[in-house]
Specification:
heterodimer; A: mainly beta; 0% helix; globular; B: mainly beta; 7-stranded mixed sheet; 50% strand
Chain lengths: 109, 114
């Protein structure tokens, strides 16, 4: 199974950009990279996903390394509501989202 | 558009008992996946159902079983409960089982085994 590795925690100031890194060195060619975030006592919430090219949506941007062994989730302007555990996951056919330990992001006002 | 719902929200059982957890998928979604999340850990994939058939399974023993119904709602059954089964059980639905589709998670069922 593809494994993901993320820093345990990161801290950011409100209104500043945040770059959350992830390593997925054993990813297979058809695996998609998905990012989710989870607030306490809630289920994970989808953030963004991609295969090879960088992706943007209203929540964030996803930068994928050329060799696909790593990716970075970019929150352009962190808000207090962005404080959560962020999971970098690999999704392969059969729905098997492979979660790591996640990065706990704290945002300081 | 109704999101993913799960019932019950909390449940307490004793070792050896059996439990059934339920999930209603988001409208238009035919695929449901189940995950187990222990405290302080990321979710672990249990299995996925696509159009009423099991479409993939994680490293869980056979006492974890499931069903998907014609309306694409789903059940997770766990027999012979063990203390380590205490966790948050998450259900997620997606448009199809393809890897490019995002999964939409419900709020989870918190199971405590005493």
């Amino acid at each position: 199974d593809a494994k993901t590795t993320q820093p345990n925690s990161m801290e950011s100031n409100e209104e500043e950009p945040v770059h959350l890194p992830c390593n997925h060195s054993t990813i297979s060619g058809t695996d998609y990279i998905h990012w989710y975030r989870q607030l306490p006592s809630q289920g994970p919430e989808y953030v963004i996903h991609g295969l090879t090219s960088n992706v943007n949506n209203r929540m964030a941007s996803l930068a994928i390394a050329e060799d696909r062994k790593s990716s970075t989730l970019i929150l352009h302007r962190a808000t207090l509501r962005d404080a959560a555990v962020y999971y970098c996951t690999v999704l392969r056919q059969g729905g098997k989202l492979i979660f790591g330990q996640g990065t706990e992001l704290s945002v300081k006002p | 558009e109704t999101g993913v719902t799960q019932s019950p929200t909390h449940l307490i059982k004793t070792r050896g008992q059996q439990v059934t957890l339920r999930c209603s998928s988001q409208s238009g979604h035919n695929t449901v996946s189940w995950y187990q999340q222990a405290l302080g850990q990321g979710p672990q994939f249990i299995f996925q159902y696509y159009r009423e058939e099991e479409n993939g399974r994680g490293n869980f023993p056979p006492r974890f079983s499931g069903l998907q119904f014609p309306n694409y709602s789903s059940e997770l059954n766990v027999n012979a409960l063990e203390l380590d089964d205490s966790a948050l059980y998450l259900c997620a639905s997606s448009l199809t089982g393809d890897s490019y589709n995002e999964q939409f998670f419900g709020p989870g069922t918190r199971l405590t085994v005493l």
